[in-house]
Amino acid sequence: MAFQTATKAVLLASALFYTEPAGAQDLKEELDCLARNIYFESRNQPLAGRLAVGQVTMNRVDSPRFPNTVCGVVMQGGERLHRCQFSWYCDGEIDYPSDEIRFREASDLAITVYVRGFPDLTEGALWYHANYIKQPDWARSKTITVKINEHIFYK
Asked: Has residue 84 been placed in a domain?
């Protein structure tokens, strides 16, 4: 299993960075959206927390309730200030990763998450929030699946 996952990740990386097969630009954009979401939502979290944020993003891609692309999921609701699914995307701030090392880590993790390289730590969660904020209204109608670091995950 680990070998197959590693092989998928190597093949994906090769396709992205060494050749330009059909659809490679779209895949690069998808991975960049996923990396930015991991970075801006959880760069201060340990690996499990960053992985879980990426997995929620992919769980949404797989759900008929959300857009079917990573960028569509990440940008959903971003037409209006403070109305998007992921707060970093429409908070009015410049979305440029300032920590090059953490962004590189997020980019590497994005490839692994995209090829489903780990079991889903979130147990199918589609939502989460930080534990240091007041519980959002939407959380009352959801079931907690797991708490990882500073995030509470729901389905």
From this structure: yes
In whole angstroms, give the CA distance from residue 86 to residue 140.
19
Is 32:17 a contact under the CB 8 Å cutoff? no
Q: Which of 116, 126, 121, 107 is nearest to 36 (CA)?
A: 107
**pLDDT 10s digits, 43-71:** 999 999 999 999 999 999 999 999 999 99
pLDDT in tens, 26-39: 999 999 999 999 99
Single out the residue of 55, 62, 40 nearest to residue 122, CA to CA. Answer: 55
User: Is 127 domain-assigned?
Assistant: no
Domain count, the chain: 1
H/E run at residue 145: strand 144-148
User: Could you list the residue range(s) of the whole structural domain that residue 93 is in?
Assistant: 2-120
Chain centroid to Cα 70, Å, comes to 8
